[in-house]
Amino acid sequence: MNAASRLCEIIAQGGKVSSGFYDGDRSFAALVQHGFLRKAGVLDAVVCDECSEAHSAPVVYEQLDHGYYCPELGLVKLAPEQVIAYRPDLPFLIGKLADLLDCEQRKATPLQDQTWRIGAFTAAHDKIMLYFHPRLQTEEDARQLQDTLSRHARSRWRLILTCQGAWPMADIVTAHLDQVVDLDPTTGALRLLEDPGTLAGAPRASTVGRPDQHGHLIKPLIEDRISTGAAATAIKAEARAVKAIFEAAYPGKPLPSDSTLQRYVRAARKGS
Ligand SMILES: [Zn+2]
To answer: Which pTM value belongs to this model?
Structure first.
C-alpha cells in the first residue's frame, strides 16, 4: 500500500495504532519519519494471538513491564516496541495540504468536531474552499460535516477531502485524500494527482493569457526534482524535462510557455 493510502487507512481508524502491527511496512516507516504520524504514548489495548482464542485485552504496566492479561495464559509481557502507539498528526497534514496548494484562509484547528478547513486556493478565476473530514462513512459523519459547514460562510466551490467513505450529500463534493495527493516516501513531499478545482466542479478557464494556471501543479514537480537531485543544471534543460513530466502526468492539460516554465525553475532555485 502506498504511503498516502496507508495514512488514509490509519486516519480512518480514528485512534492510536501500534508500530508493532506495521512492523516492516515501508509506508508506515515513511509516515513516521516525515512527521505524519507521531508517538502517542502506549497503546490502550492489544490483540492476543498467543492463545486459542483471538481476543483484545487492555495493556497494563506491572512488574516494570508492559503486558496484558490473557484468560488462558495469565500475564503476557510485551516488548517496548510492541506497545508504542502512534497517532496521525492532523494539524501537520492540514498544513502540508495548505502549503501544497498555496492556500489562503487557513485554519490550524478544527472548525468544529472533526471538520477542518484546509483553506482557499485559487484556480483560474475561481476560489475553491478545501475542507477535511476524516470519515464520511455513516449518516452521523455526514450530519456532523453538514452541521459544521452550515455555520460557516458558503463558498461557491468547495471540496471535502476524506479518508474513508463517500456518504452521498446534496451539494457537497467529496474526494478521498489518496485520490487527490500522493506522498513521496523518500522526501515526505505531497504531490497533486488531481486538480481539486476540477473535482469541485469549477469550470476550467481558457488558458489564453493565464500562464500561471497550473503553477500549483508545476511548482511541486520542480521542487521534487531539486530535493531528489534529479534536476538538470541548466535552466532551459530543466524546464524541458519538467515540461515532459507534466505532459505525461497531465495529458491534455495546456502548458505554460517555455519562458514561464523557466521562470518557475529559477524561482524554485532561489527558494532552495
Ligand atoms: Zn489470549
So the answer is: 0.70
